[in-house]
Amino acid sequence: MELVDANQKAGFDFEKFVVTLLDRRYFKIDRWAGDKFVAGRYAAENHDPDLQLRLVLGGDVHPLVLEFKWRSHASGDFIRFATPKQLAHYQAFERGCGVPTFVALS
Description:
Layout: H1 6-21, E1 27-32, E2 37-38, E3 41-42, E4 51-57, E5 60-69, H2 84-97, E6 101-105
Parallel strand pairs: 5-6
Antiparallel strand pairs: 1-4, 2-3, 4-5
């Protein structure tokens, strides 16, 4: 029997839900991070945003990136969706690849 982390499952379910909202005619998925790890070991790319895709409108192609954040509750009047280090990494990723990076928060 495998134990399932309820928050991890909810986060992945949120990712799947958002992906179902992206119309296949317009959104093409290039990369969907798997975030695999064991005993504290993981690939460096796990720090990159979750979904890299292209919005195709006519003959124009617009790359974009989504980072998914599932939070089960707010902390007072706000929801902390990333540490300062994580936020800096997402901003550096956006600058480095020149692709708009968005956060999908639930």
